[in-house]
Every structure is written in C-alpha cells, then in structure tokens.
Amino acid sequence: MFKHIAVAALALTFSSAVSGTAFADDIVAGKLTISDPLIRATAPKARVAGGFMTITNHGDQADRLIGGTASFAGKTEIHEMAMQGEVMRMRQLAEGLEIPAGGSVSLMPGGYHIMFMKLGEQLMPGETRKVTVTFEKAGEVALDMNVLSVGDLKKHMENKHMHGDHSHN
C-alpha cells in the first residue's frame, strides 16, 4: 500500500511541476464541492477582476451561489457574460447562480464568474487570496484562490477542458 501512496504522491508532484502551479485541494461545504478556485491577475490600478471555479452539487436539492466578500475588493457580485444579438454583454445575476442538484457549474472566462469590483490593490500572479463565497443553503465558504496571469489562466482552462472537465454551464 505504501508503494501505491508513494507513486500517487510522485505523480501529483510531477503534475504540479509540469503545470507550473500547484492547486489547492477541493473544498467541501455540505453537499457542494468547489474545485479550482482561481482569480485572473490584474494590471496596476485595475478596478475589477474575475474569479473562477467549478462547483459540483452532490445533493438532491439545488443550491444557489448568491454572493461573496474579499478584503481586496469593495464589492463582490455574481455575473454572467452572454451574447445578446451580436454583442457580448455582462450582467449581474441578482438572484445568484443556481447549482443544480446532482450537477456542476463552471465559472470561467466568457461565462459565469465572480466579479471583484472596487479593487484596493493589484492582484499579482503567484499570490493566493482569501475569498468567502456565500450559498443560499451551504452558507459561507472560505476559499484560498490562486491568482494566475492571463496567459496561465487561459492555458489552465484549455488544459482543463481538453482533459475531461465536463461541467455544465
């Protein structure tokens, strides 16, 4: 058994080294599992940043992501980017984002995301930032979110998509 654990640990270490970034373990909150909590790094004096993750609901009732807080942002909202005619528009989801029973929702660039607004400081690649997200049923959940450069975030999302993240959006 020790041999299997050692091989698994080595594989995980190699995987993290290849990707260039080590990601935190999944966070479990009641019937929800939160994977890959990430924030896009910002330019100096940027006023907004996007937060991304996958939320899986293992329960038999839907839950709803309704908000959050972060010490680096004056305001935190749940947003969606969607096509309206031929124009991509962003809007706040005033009622939050439903996480269906037995399903997953991916928050990712160009779709659902957490919008950190009124930033008080620049978010730098390689940092880890503490964020609290709030669910209707699961309540408040504290996260450590890795900050990635735009390029690293894009690579990570492409790699995740290519290797079988079949979350529903």
What is the strand and helix layout of this fold?
Elements: H1 2-19, E1 27-29, E2 32-40, E3 48-57, E4 63-70, E5 73-84, E6 87-92, E7 97-99, E8 104-107, E9 112-119, E10 128-135, E11 139-148, H2 150-162
Parallel strand pairs: 2-11
Antiparallel strand pairs: 1-2, 2-3, 3-8, 3-9, 4-7, 4-10, 5-6, 5-9, 10-11
In one word, what is the shape? Answer: globular
Our measurement of the CA-to-CA distance between the termini, rounded to an integer number of angstroms, reads 39 Å
Q: How many helices in DSSP terms?
A: 2
Number of strands: 11
CA radius of gyration: 16 Å
How much of the sequence is in beta strands?
over 45%
Offer a quick outline of the entry.
Helix content is 18%, strand content 48%. The chain has 169 residues and is of the alpha+beta class. Strand 5 (73-84) and strand 6 (87-92) form a beta hairpin.
Would you mind describing this structure in some detail?
This protein is 18% helix and 48% strand. With 169 residues, it is α+β, with helices and mostly antiparallel strands. Strands 1, 2, 3, 4, 5, 6, 7, 8, 9, 10 and 11 form an 11-stranded mixed sheet that branches. Strand 1 and strand 2 (32-40) form a beta hairpin. The longest helix is centred in the N-terminal third of the chain and has 18 residues, at 2-19. The radius of gyration is 16 Å and the shape is globular.
